[in-house]
Each structure stands twice: as C-alpha cells, then as structure tokens.
Amino acid sequence: MSDPLFELTSFQRDLLYVIAGAKRPSGQEIKTELQSSMDEITHGRLYPNLDTLVEREYVDKGESDRRTNFYELTGKGRAGLHDRRRWENRYVDLSTEE
Questions:
Q1: Quick check: pTM over 0.90?
Q2: Cross-strand bridge partners of residue 68
Q3: Where are the domains of the chain?
Q4: I need a labelling partner for 91 at 20 to 30 A (CA). Which of 64, 76, 81, 85 fits?
Q5: What's the mean pLDDT in 60-81?
Q6: Contact 70, 6 (CB under 8 A)
C-alpha cells in the first residue's frame, strides 16, 4: 500500500501531527507549538505549507473571525496519519524497553 504522506515534506507532516493534537488551532497556535521543538518558523514557511495541506485535502481551513483562520484534519488527513503510523511501526517498535 502506498502512503500518500510520502509526497509531503517532513515539515508538512509535522504540521499534520500538531493539527491532529489540537482542537481547531490557528496558524499562530500551530507555529507556537512547533517552535517549542524547533527553531524559529517564519510566516513565509508556515502559511504556504498549510496552504499545500489544504490544497491536497489533508486539512480544512475555516475562519474563526475576520483575522484568524483555524485548521483541522480531514478524513483523508486522519487516514494518512494512521497509514503513516502503521508504516513507521513496521520498521521501529518503540513499545518495548531495552
């Protein structure tokens, strides 16, 4: 089975994971969450990648108010993350302690 998430960059997959773990996060909330684990994320990096996820139908984009958008996984996005996790688990079993 081909994993459609292979077409995404690692940053785009990270965005999906953050969106999946939050309830309708704004772009700023996604940025803040990611920056807790990585270097500064610019507006020019974040929003084009979110737009790509919307265009590829992994994420829906809605409007919280006139100035703020929210993002949430689509069924395709959730299924893609599930398939990706299953693929990762074939190669790395983190459930056992050494």
A1: no
A2: 65
A3: 4-86
A4: 76
A5: 94
A6: no
